[in-house]
Sequence to fold (383 residues):
Amino acid sequence: MKCSSCGGTMVYDVAKKGLVCDHCGAVQPLPKPEESSGAGTADFNPAVKEDVSDWGSARNLVTCDSCGAQLFIDSDQMSGLCPFCGSAVVLTLQEAKCGLAPSAIIPFSITREQVTEKFYRWNKFAFWSPESFRKGKILGNLTPVYVPYWTFDADTVTTYSGRFGYTTGSGEDEKINWYQRTGTVEKHIEGACVCGSKKFRNDKLLNSVISFSTKDLVAYTPDALSGMAAEKYTVGIDEAWEVAKNTELNSRVTNAARAKENADRYSDLKISTEYSNIKYRYVLVPVWLTGCKYGGKVYNVVASGHNWKGNCSRPFSVAKLITFLSIFFVLFVVTSIFGLGGVFLGLGVMAMLVAFIIYMAMFMSTLSEQRQQERKMSEGQTE
Fold:
């Protein structure tokens, strides 16, 4: 996108939460989530039949030769790094067929510097990792990428039959009474999510940090993608709908049946659900990706681009464990010789308890500091 003031190129800036001109510094803010209520909803059935592929700006498709990831990149960008494995990629000049265009997006609101600072802050608590990993500057270059998700809204009518349990009493007198029940329950379901990436849908690290609600969404705009990569969805809308019905939608309607019967639990439940007024969104969700190279291995790091959640894999220090057990064993043998083995064990337990209390105090202090920082950032975003 060109700057209206000087004609320079405008690129999305996470810190500014809008487009910034690389020449004159002019800023064009993006819409806020509260300004995009119900962003991007569309009827499901027409979407299955039509190929709505207008992304609003030209995009090139690149496939990483190392990991197989498929990404959409700005059409004027000719080289870059794969955000999934860090390999260098060369882009094609041919504009890609993008498939369905996104209907909603969550723009990046957390910067690379903020993610880096948070990683090193919390990495200090990785006690059982090697010290050079725990305290070293080992974080790779964080790369922003949008991961595809599908969300579905639907009206449901569910007929159910099964056993429902009702708890009476408490403690030793607690008892569960089971009764056979049948009935029908109606429920409107919003925001049932399915990951649109086969690469990531079963990834525990990614799933531990990705969470969003419809209030976080803004209507899709190509401006938010300026200078960013977006993974191409590899789970199509038909497949995603089937997954949603068998997972989250199924869970919600069974819980609705339990709630209607005012039961504490259920068993052998059989359900039959009819869906109507089905709406979908194709959502792009922001994620920071990188890895930590240590000991010839790469440990993945994933951080949300909007909700402050992050997670990573870390090496385990066998040397630390052996050293700790060796010291404990030697001290126990020495004190046992003088008949003080029991005293040593008692002091050892007390020392570990004190260390745990100190550790938790430091952890809670860091957590409180983090919460205050997030609160200030949130207040700044709403101003």
